[in-house]
Amino acid sequence: MVSLWGSSKKDDDHEAARSQNGESSEHIAQPRVSEADERTRLLPPQTHEAYLSPDDPAVSPYNLWSVRWLRYFTVFFSLLTFLWWVLLLVSIFVSPPGMHARGSGFFDFSYTTLTLGLLLIVLLFFSTPSKAAQVTCLVIAVILLIDMILILAVPRLRVEEGWVGIASVVWAVLISVWTVFTDRIVSWGKREEEERLTGRPETRRTLREWCSVLTSTVILVIIAVVAVLLSATLMLRSRDASLAPPGERYYVDGDKYQIHVFCTGNSTDSKGKKLPTVLFEAGDGPFEGGMIQVAENGIANGSISRYCYSDRPGIAWSDNAPSPFSAGMAADVLSEALARAGEEGPWILASAGVGSIYSRIFSSRHGRDVSGLLMIDPLHEDLLYRIGSPNRGFLLWAWGIISPLGLDRLPAALFKGRTREDRVYGRSAYQSGKYIKAKLQESLVANSLTKNEVSSARNIQFDKTPLVIISSGIEVRRDSEWEKKQRDLTHLTRKLVSWDIVTKAPGEVWKTYDGREMIEKRLKELVHAERTQGEYEYTTE
């Protein structure tokens, strides 16, 4: 490195030579001061050409306009991403017009969170670039690019994510590329200024710089792991999307989303007599993974002639609905889907658990087409607070936020052999983001909108509709309040056919042999009852 004294002596010699040639030092220096470059107006003009110490604050990549503008743009992108992040967070609870995604909405939120994390890391460690950060950001960019291609290439994923999800992942790809570009430019600027001001690029780092590099690298590696998990879960979703539904999907609610409806069997008996169709409404989980055994046995042994079922929004093959979404809204879209499927009553409504809330609202709004109600361990409207508690809502939201990582689905698929059937409607169905979003929607309005709707439904329920209640003996003995509310539901109409308590059955009564036998028996009575002057006559054992 040239010494300060040597540099000054060299300047004096130059000045003397210029004086001998009749040149003014002020005249010569003026073009150097006024010469425009990207440092103009950032640093005061130098009075000498002495090299600075590497630790001098003036030795900084911020001396370059290009570096400063990169930082300004990064701040702008961060603010823009944060606003989008807030909008996506709000849309989980209340869907803004035009922003409804037919998927869960958790994936686009995850990609935006990852994008925001990348931008914040760049801002926090802007002046300490490193090769490790560049490589990690490049890996993240490649993974996100694969995700973008996957979403665009798989039709079902493209439909579920919609323009919101596609925009989120495209933005994540662009920002990841931006972080690589920014880090390289800052590295160049840092080296440029070190050479200009200290005479050589600095290869050493202070302890503070090493801590910054270590911290940024660790956080970026964590973000890379998150990107890998998102990609793996997206691949599972692509695999699950290839499983065709047994029925058909129908657009509802102004063609905003689709509802899956399946019907099978004959609407008439061997003598040509029209029989009611049993319309099943599942409880907490998909109908295909639980009550379908009752329906298939009923068809096989002649207890019922024809049945239909529909997956509520967000469950199995149905899309998620916009938020908020109440039981009354679900009853309306079910009516629309059945109409589009060309299905007509009369109906025998068979429901379980919370599904009975939906069936009761449907019954009150289509009373003339309902020939009977069979409710299996039904949930009473006074107990809706149990599924609408704030704690449960928060846990569902938190579970939904981390669901795109596949922390439960990926190990189950890799080590437990869970199939796509398990994930769509079987044992692992509760792990999907769509299902979690549906239960979150259910929880948010359970004790408000839904409770008001089912209370109103009770007031307009047809009094002469035949009613069967089948209760879990275990639940009745365990919870006195549950037993009291089951008894109250027997007064839902004035025509109670029977209230059966299956002694050893859990809440999902059909899981026991005695429970299935009782359900099939009561369904047969409702379906094959003789109708006289607008009413049904029953013979019960």
TrEMBL record:
It comes from Hyaloscypha bicolor E. Residues 8-17 have a biased composition (Basic and acidic residues). This is Mitochondrial integral membrane protein-like protein. The chain crosses the membrane at residues 69-94, 106-126, 132-155, 162-181, 213-236. The keyword Transport does not apply. Pfam families: DUF2417. Residues 1-39 are annotated as: Disordered. Keywords: Membrane, Transmembrane, Transmembrane helix.
